[in-house]
Write a structure and sequence with these properties.
The complex is a heterodimer of chains A (473) and B (66). Chain A has 473 residues and is of the alpha/beta class. Helices cover 37% and strands 13% of the residues of chain A. In chain A, strands 1-3-2-4-6-5-10-11-9-7-8 form an eleven-stranded mixed beta sheet, with helices on both faces. Chain B is mainly alpha-helical. The chains are: A alpha/beta (473), B mainly alpha (66).
């Protein structure tokens, strides 16, 4: 369905735009949900973003949202908005396999806290988005909507690809090193990794619990703000957006040594646009323990992964892909003295980074080493997003430009604990150019009336025979 | 190789035989390198707290900034 006033299909709108249409009763949640399901029906054979759809339940929920509107009750900007949920996050009554054979057939009886909050805000859950195996290394079958021969990134592969392909207006992902921001950057959409534990992890399958973050992916920073406001813990005190001027720091090292020149160029251009919008930009020196703190995080992560998975690993070793098996094996071998030292260094580095925010408001970096790598065997390197995950401070990516091959490149912004709103406000300065982009089209997509998918689609088994040489958290 | 690197190498010696797949060997070599650098990072293990930023710390931090 297209709207008479714009001629655009409903699925082409941003979350903010379609929320205004619902609020003003110009379209109904049922029409919006049908539009999303039709778009999925027409294009997901290319993208493979979904582990399973819950079309009938989504339409039932949309009807309830319509009834509430008719009764004069509007729940806010997520009222009647179709969203996707990463398949490591529980939704009651819907199978959650986490991209694994080990959890195949597991049907949780309760919603995760983040899902509960989304439902309270009126969101319509379309289904579960594909994830790498246990949100770690082994890729999902999902492809990058901008070029199907390239990875969408991971581990929130399906969440990022679904938003980029206009299947839904927002999706929930998780990040232990780079699993929200990297796929969002590779797929040309926006992603927020909130401050550690600002969004509850209750009902979310752990990977490494001291680094696991839950957060939204959407098309613009404004859309992320709407989701973030709905899912964050209300008992946590946050810093409100402060308005210009923002002081933006550009780091002196770490983020540029191995980064593709086209990515660096796009990064500089995006920082220039922030400067033109009124931000002050200055170079900053990263603290002395920065690199050691990041590496310590990689050690801690392995110990935590091995701790969580050890029972399944010993009873069902064949249920694990080769890279995840290797990570668990190494985690089991890390001595206690090394784990303690890693925690000490991580903590000391995090304390040093606190000093960074005394001179700047926000740190700006490239979101990834470059555009999405070719092939589906690896989901790319999380090294540039991992520091802020390891230290627990909030980070955001927004689209920053294009590679020579026509693939998206992302800008990353990070700030002090609980300053998530500062990132969203700064990122919103670049929203206008994102909203103006034409939607991705697919050769076989037909935008006329289409049947609504009514049954769940089984997730493909992870391809364990592929070579995986890079991290994919 | 000093004593510190020696014990790390022993702990992370790759398995032999059928278990010694290339992915595991690469992973063990990578982590051995990480641990070696970790144990050469100049911090005082007797005075550094071992906890990571946790809820209590973050709440304190938030209150400080409020």
């Amino acid at each position: 369905m297209s709207t008479p006033s714009t001629g655009r299909y409903l699925w082409q709108f941003t979350l903010g735009e379609v929320a205004a249409l619902i609020r003003d009763r110009e379209v109904s949640p049922i029409e919006v949900t049908r539009a999303s399901l039709e778009r999925i029906e027409q294009t997901d054979s290319h993208v493979l973003a979904w582990a399973r759809l819950c079309a009938e339940r989504a339409l039932d929920d949309a009807k309830r949202m319509e009834e509430l509107l008719r009764a004069g009750k509007y729940l806010g900007p997520l009222h009647g908005i179709p969203v996707g949920i990463k398949d490591i996050i529980q939704t009651a009554g819907v199978e959650m396999s986490a991209g694994s054979r080990i959890l195949a057939g597991f049907v949780p009886t309760e919603d995760a806290e983040v899902v509960r909050r989304l439902r309270l805000a009126g969101a319509v859950i379309l289904g579960k988005t594909a994830t790498t195996q246990f949100a770690l290394f082994d890729p999902a079958p999902t492809r990058n909507p901008h070029n199907l021969a390239h990875t969408p990134g991971g581990s929130s592969s399906g969440s990022a690809a679904a938003v980029a392909a206009h299947h839904c207006f927002a999706a929930i992902g998780s990040q232990t090193l780079g699993s929200i921001l990297r796929p969002a950057a590779y797929c040309g959409v926006a992603g927020l990794k909130p401050t550690y534990d600002l969004v509850s992890r209750k009902g979310v399958l752990p990977l490494a619990w001291s680094m696991d973050h839950v957060g939204p992916i959407a098309r613009t920073s404004g859309d992320l703000l709407a989701v973030w406001n709905a899912i964050r813990r209300p008992d946590k005190q946050i810093r409100e957006a402060k308005g210009l001027p923002y002081i933006v720091g550009v780091p002196d090292r770490f983020f540029f040594e191995k980064t593709d020149p086209a990515m660096v160029q796009a990064f500089r251009a995006a920082v220039g646009r922030l400067e033109n919008a009124g931000a002050a930009v200055r170079e900053v020196r990263l603290p002395s323990l920065f690199e050691a703190g990041v590496e310590a995080g990689y050690v801690v992560m392995r110990v935590e992964i091995a701790t969580f998975h050890q029972q399944w690993f010993f009873s069902r070793p064949d249920g694990y892909g080769p890279k995840l098996r290797a990570v668990i094996e190494s985690g089991l071998r890390i001595p206690a003295v090394s784990y303690v030292r890693a925690q000490q260094i991580r903590r000391a580095a995090a304390e040093q980074i606190r000093q960074l925010w005394k001179g700047i408001d926000v740190l700006a970096t490239p979101a990834a080493l470059g555009a999405a790598p070719q092939g589906l065997g690896s989901t790319g390197d999380p090294i540039l997003t991992s520091p802020f995950t390891i230290f627990g401070v909030p980070s955001l990516t927004v689209p920053a430009g294009w590679s020579s091959a026509g693939l998206p490149l992302g800008l990353q912004l990070a700030a002090d604990y609980f300053h998530d709103a500062w990132l969203l406000e700064l990122g919103a300065m670049l929203d206008a150019e994102i909203s103006a982009r034409p939607p991705i089209d697919f050769p076989a997509a037909r935008h006329g009336p289409a049947a609504v998918t009514s049954s769940a689609k089984p997730q493909e088994e992870p391809n364990e025979g592929q070579d995986r040489t890079e991290a994919a958290y | 190789m000093n004593r510190s690197e020696d014990w790390i190498a022993r702990v992370f010696q790759a398995d032999s035989g059928a278990e010694a797949d290339a992915v595991l060997q690469e992973e063990l070599a990578s982590v051995a390198g990480m641990l070696s650098r970790l144990h050469h990072t100049p911090i005082d293990p007797a005075t550094e707290p071992i906890t990571t930023p946790d809820l209590a710390t973050l709440r304190e931090t938030s209150d400080e900034h409020a």
